[in-house]
Amino acid sequence: MAFATGLHSTALSHTILPLLHHRGTLLYAHFRRLSNSAGLFASSSRRCKREFQPVFAQARRSFSSAVASPSDLQFEGPLKIIEYPDPKLRAKNKRVDTFDETLKKLVDEMFDVMYKDDGVGLSAPQVGMNVQVMVFNPAGERGEGEEIVLVNPRINRYSRQIVPFDEGCLSFPGVYADVERPNSLVVEAQDINGAKFEVNLTGFPARIFQHEFDHLQGILFFDKMSDEILDTIRAELQALEKKYEERTGLPSPERIDIRRKIKKAVGFGKS
């Protein structure tokens, strides 16, 4: 994940599976084969109704209501991963309202950074761009799997089944620890062209999405850890805080020793 290794959708099928495009090439048949054999994506709306519950809790850190201006999407490459505790990781991320070549250039650059850093997912704030854009590819390899792009994503429903997983993050190099998350969820978003869609994610893709979705709300993966799990990486987080201070000459904008535990419900609010 930035999640430590985008879905191009144009329509919504009757089973809430979008048509997937890989840089313009239709991949619907391959997506359907994956969903049937590997169970990565659920394809039954009846199953969705049985296993999912609606989102009621409002996230403590909600999305910004501000809309990104053209200048918010401009950048000079190459972009680089920013590391904890850079304040851009906690900043509000603006909604994207313009779907043009500038956005496509940003998405392409984000994929380049993700693959270069051996990630399977990346959110825009992790490269210093505070806009609501995420990309991921569960395969983690260019030319394999599906490249997934979600703009202005929201979670509509999530499963009651909570599972732990040893997560890493590109903004926390070398840091890994267990995070508990729902195993499945139903997401709505816009694709690279601005078309709205809804998709049901299960298993590893759902895990990657939730990790990147948290980033878009200014939530970091250690915010979701129990105190016991957090203690296992506390020294590594302190080392990153010290590294930031030495590099910038500024005091760390946050310190793990005085962090306030965020409730488990954070990250599943629909705004």
Automatic annotation (TrEMBL):
<dbReference type="Pfam" id="PF01327">
    <property type="entry name" value="Pep_deformylase"/>
</dbReference>
<keyword id="KW-0408">Iron</keyword>
<keyword id="KW-0479">Metal-binding</keyword>
<keyword id="KW-0378">Hydrolase</keyword>
<comment type="function">
    <text>Removes the formyl group from the N-terminal Met of newly synthesized proteins.</text>
</comment>
<comment type="similarity">
    <text>Belongs to the polypeptide deformylase family.</text>
</comment>
<dbReference type="InterPro" id="IPR036821">
    <property type="entry name" value="Peptide_deformylase_sf"/>
</dbReference>
<keyword id="KW-0150">Chloroplast</keyword>
<dbReference type="InterPro" id="IPR023635">
    <property type="entry name" value="Peptide_deformylase"/>
</dbReference>
<keyword id="KW-0809">Transit peptide</keyword>
<dbReference type="GO" id="GO:0006412">
    <property type="term" value="P:translation"/>
</dbReference>
<protein>
    <recommendedName>
        <fullName>Peptide deformylase</fullName>
        <ecNumber>3.5.1.88</ecNumber>
    </recommendedName>
</protein>
<dbReference type="GO" id="GO:0046872">
    <property type="term" value="F:metal ion binding"/>
</dbReference>
<dbReference type="GO" id="GO:0042586">
    <property type="term" value="F:peptide deformylase activity"/>
</dbReference>
<keyword id="KW-0934">Plastid</keyword>
<keyword id="KW-0648">Protein biosynthesis</keyword>
<dbReference type="GO" id="GO:0009507">
    <property type="term" value="C:chloroplast"/>
</dbReference>
